[in-house]
């Protein structure tokens, strides 16, 4: 299993006495106020009234605060991941588990990857529960949000007080959507030296596998983040594949470029393609994103702008570099429609 490594040459920025995660470049940021805000939320439908606490502390204090906040969660939880999206029509990807998992499994994943999760400003992690109606979430900028029923207010305030925190009017000056964030930047924190280096895609893939996470979108539609229906769009999907014969460790990434009208249709097209070849078996879906038309590869230079038919345009087969042999690199493409006997 590839190891995640932080870039050793990165220096941590400080704004006054406030240490930032490695992934944030402050620009002309005003020093954040360490403390917490609290907001009352009236329940809708059958949901209870709740409070949302949002705590912000300097980086050297964040790990202990997050660990203690996760202790509020019950024995069974629903994990959540938020991550900056590469999708052309969505800025943020939200992954939610479709099943409840033991809190121990969630905490094992948290401790396994916390060195990266506490530093990378493009990913957030947390979990919620139905009983009690509670959510604890470490956001991308490493603030801790606690969404809790009214009766838990005192216990949460006690926890925050134990960390030396008091209620304040605001933490990030002009709030997290204002000038501070606009004039600040995000940078990569993982060390990427070659194609074998573990990157953020790899981290997301492992978390999805360990925590049973699915992309929280309607798989039957194809909308942008404003709800506008897009119809047929260009998609790029990458799967992890194992050979049907031979050493299972000699796998490959298969990249599908296709036109489709929904995530469900993408999955169906991949399933159909895998069934008509006998070289690879799908192990897991690594990533899937909609691509802007002008982001299409050179192989699709002649692709019409408007397309009415769902189809796979081509598939790239990339054997894992450390395992690939000259025979593998020169082998026929099982997805090449021009090859005899393949689809």
Q: How would you sum up this structure in a few lines?
A:
This protein has 343 residues and is α+β, with helices and mostly antiparallel strands.
Describe the structure.
- The structure is a single chain.
- By secondary structure, this protein is an alpha+beta fold.
- The chain folds into two domains: 14-186, no CATH class; 230-343.
- Helix content is 20%, strand content 29%.
- The protein has seven helices and 17 strands.
- It has helices spanning 59-70, 103-117, 153-162, 179-182, 200-211, 263-275, 326-329, and strands at 14-15, 18-19, 24-25, 35-41, 50-56, 76-84, 92-97, 101-102, 123-129, 134-138, 144-149, 185-186, 213-215, 233-243, 252-260, 280-291, 311-319.
- Strands 4, 5, 6, 7, 8, 9, 10, 11 and 13 form a nine-stranded antiparallel beta sheet that branches. A four-stranded antiparallel beta sheet has the order 16-14-15-17, sandwiched between helices. A two-stranded antiparallel sheet has the order 1-2.
- A hairpin with a 2-residue loop joins strand 1 and strand 2 (18-19).
- Helix 2 (103-117) runs antiparallel to helix 5 (200-211).
- Mean pLDDT is 90; it is low at 175-180, 322-332 and 339-343.
């Amino acid at each position: 299993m590839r190891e995640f490594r932080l870039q050793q040459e990165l220096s941590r920025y400080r704004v006054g006495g406030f240490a930032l995660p490695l992934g944030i470049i402050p620009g002309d940021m005003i020093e954040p106020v360490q403390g917490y805000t609290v907001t009352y939320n009236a329940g809708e439908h059958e949901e209870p009234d709740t409070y949302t606490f949002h705590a912000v502390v300097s980086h050297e204090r964040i790990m202990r605060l997050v660990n203690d906040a996760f202790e509020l969660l019950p024995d069974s939880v629903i994990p959540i991941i938020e991550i900056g999206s590469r999708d052309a029509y969505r800025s943020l990807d939200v992954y939610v588990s479709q099943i409840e998992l033991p809190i121990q499994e969630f905490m094992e994943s948290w401790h396994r990857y916390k060195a990266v999760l506490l530093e990378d400003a493009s990913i957030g992690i947390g979990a919620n529960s139905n009983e009690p109606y509670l959510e604890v979430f470490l956001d991308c900028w490493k603030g801790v949000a606690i969404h809790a029923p009214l009766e838990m207010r005192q216990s949460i305030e006690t926890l925050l007080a134990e960390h030396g925190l008091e209620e304040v009017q605001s933490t990030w000056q002009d709030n997290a959507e204002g000038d501070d964030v606009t004039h600040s930047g995000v940078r990569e924190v993982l060390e990427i030296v070659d194609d074998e280096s573990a990157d953020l895609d790899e981290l997301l893939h492992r978390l999805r596998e360990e925590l049973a996470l699915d992309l929280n979108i309607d798989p039957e539609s194809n909308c942008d983040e404003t709800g506008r229906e897009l119809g047929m769009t260009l998609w790029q999907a990458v799967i992890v594949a194992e050979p049907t014969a031979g050493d299972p460790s000699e796998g490959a990434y298969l990249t599908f470029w296709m036109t489709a009208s929904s995530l469900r249709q993408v999955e169906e097209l991949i399933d159909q393609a895998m069934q008509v070849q006998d070289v690879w078996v799908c192990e897991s879906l690594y990533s899937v994103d909609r691509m802007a038309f002008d982001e299409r590869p050179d192989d699709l230079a002649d692709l019409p702008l408007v397309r009415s038919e769902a189809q796979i345009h081509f598939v790239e087969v990339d054997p894992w570099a450390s395992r690939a042999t000259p025979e593998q690199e020169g082998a026929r493409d099982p997805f090449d429609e021009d090859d005899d006997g393949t689809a």
